[in-house]
Amino acid sequence: MAVEASRRPIGQIATVSLWSRFYGFGSVYAKTIRDSRLAFIIVAGLLGGIMLAGCMAFGTAYSTPASRLDLQNVIDNIPPVLKGLYNNPVHVETLGGSLSWKYGPFFGLIAGLWSITALSGTLASEARRGSLDMVAAAPFGKRRIAVEKLAAHLTGMIGAMAFLAILTWAGSAAFGTLPGDAVPIQGAVGFAVWVGLIGLVSGSVAWALAPFVGRASAAGVAGAVMFGGYVVSGYQESIPALRLPADLTWFHWTAGDLPLAGQYDWLSLVPVALIAAALFAVGVVAFDRRDLGSSSAIPVPAMPGALLGVRGPTGRSFGERLPMALAWGIGLALYAALIGASSRSFADELAKSPDTARLFASLFKGYDITTGGGFLQLLFAYMGYLIAGLAAATLVSGWASDENGRRLELLLASPLGRARWAISGGIGVFGAIAVMTVVAMLGVAIGVASAGSDVATPVAGTLILGLYAAAAAGVGFAVGGLFRNTVAGEVTAVLVIATFLVDFLAPALNLPDWVHQLALSSHLGQTMVGNWDPAGIAACAVLAVGGLLLGAWGMTRRDVD
Amino acid sequence: MTAVIRTDKLTKFYGSHRGIVEVDVDVQKGEVFGFLGPNGAGKTTTIRLLLDLIRPTSGKAFVFDIESSADPAAIHRRLGYLPGEFALYDRLTGGQTLEYFGNLRGGVDRAYQARLIERFDLDPSRRFREYSKGNKQKVGLVAALQHKPELLLLDEPTAGLDPLVQQTFFSLLREAVADGGTVFLSSHILSEVERSCDRVAIIREGRLVRVDRVDALRDLAHHQVELRFSGEPPADEFKKLAGVSDIEVEDHLLRLRVFGPITPVVQAAARLGVTDFLSREPSLEETFLAQYGREAAEVK
Q1: DSSP H helices in A36-94
Q2: What residue ranges do the domains of chain A occupy?
Q3: Which value does ipTM take for this structure?
């Protein structure tokens, strides 16, 4: 029997407005733009803010030709080992040249972090969650979904870089105090193009890998490629063994492109752009051809069963956080080992130049930077606070994921009370922080021991990183318990970044001392050289323990999400 | 009988959004109590209030005669719970997950746990993230059942289970009740409630609209009747009868709905020379739809 399809009368079909095809819910592209607006605002604001603050700080601190000459002398005398984390010093007597030297790479790293986070997750995590299935069921191919997602990120990056270029140009014109300080439009745009390309090529690694290995592994590999390339390229001059791998990094290829300093190497950007384009294409094709949501995670050794912690909530929290804590600890340890091991080389270089040695002695009063501990205090401690604090934020996020991931209902349906859950989980997090700290201490020990310096003092001083991380975690526990666990990790991260920026920028911007005092890290002494500040240590302990108790109390009073 | 669950004008608002409003239910020991309603009606809110996961805006809930927020741990010690949506630990295997939840209760009977795993045909050696939705649900069910709780609070428990596993699940429910247990089962699948429950409460837009025995609901239900006549159906004769509604005529066929006793319709049909008579006993689902409107029931 033939079946005749009947046509149902239908109402008027609403058309998709042009605007909503670009922003909103009119297309995959528009939805992705909408979803990433907060990240865009944060990244553009951060990059623009750092640039403006840098312009302001430089203009204020170096307002006379004599001060610029001093600065140039200082930078010229810095040995290669200390220059590793900075750009090539070109025209450092100008505002643009100085900013390019000191902060240039950090702009690229921030843009890269954004790209890696966004491009590793935009498809892979959504596919894993299952929401992409519904999008893919729409009447267009997977390839178009991938292209639209990618285009949305490119749009965001272009927007952020345009904002950066404008602020670079305007900031240098507004705060420059001597002729040559104003960065021309071409320089501002050139710098933004470099930052954007470094960001995109880093993200393209994650984009290409994500369909194969999943979000976490792709982001991890891309992050390692980016940070590894940055370190290898920076230190290849002082460590000959790094010269060959440095040739493979885009940081090294573009080392001569310093638009803020008036030095252009446009051609060096071409291979970077080509690699990014090729990896973007790989990612699109891979997403199109592979099964939706299927990925093969990079195999990592499984945790021993005894460490999984199935005996109780404290052990479970510790076991769940342990891999993350080990990862952060290993990162800190590698960083500390590199800096610690370089201290001997730095001391040798400094010994050749008594004038520079005297200059450093006057700049860094209170400790000897030629010792392993002193060198770590100079180059590791402050960045260490930031890294340890961010580690705490991720561990707090893990603690909060019991509620955010809807496990808490099942847990609390057992005789486990809310306060006990919060405190047990918090103790697990503190245990993970302790593991991270011990691993970092190992790195410190290996680094300074290889340089022949005193090991005990900096190793003991590394404890402060753990204490600071515990304090940051305490704030996260309090926020999660009292208010919402969905924001506990984020608030912790924002607090840590704000603390870092205040500690870093307040002296540079000559802000009132009370502003600088707001940063907890400014109260922790110089523990790598044995100078401990009891007030800061007490504050950390109070924040850690008090925050956890406050969070536990808050959990007993509010609804579980 | 003893009330295992009792609520007194239990009300929950999320800010200005309605959760549930003045819900009064009592669940007796040894019964399977169905909590039925469309999505968003307030079923999960009610369960979470019973567990003290959220706190009432007003009213009270008692479980085992203990006020839910007074000593939740004492209540939790005696119940098993399966949430409607849950995620567990991706890195743990199913077996490790069950071990953990057993440990949180001070340990469970390993032999019974193993029997449950076997009956659900669950592979406990796989990591949780590798499980299908149905297998994740099985892990949740075993976690809820493995300590032989006195009360089972199950929020849409059959979601993702295939029919065979559903059979296993329902037979386990019957065994739990036979052992003196009590079950509070929320669902929006009427056939599931019809099949397994002694009593049912229907909740809609946060308010209880009916609590009754499943049988009683069915008795009150309508009958869908089709009458065939040799000539034009005498529709007007049936319109006069009490409880008759929704009369439709199609050629020689008369369709109508009868609420209450069907005898007057049978007698009238015989008197008016009916040639064929078809009466269908309605399912609970159809009862629910007829009573509370199709828009209120998003049934599978």
Answers
A1: 37-61, 65-76, 80-83
A2: 48-293, 313-561
A3: 0.70
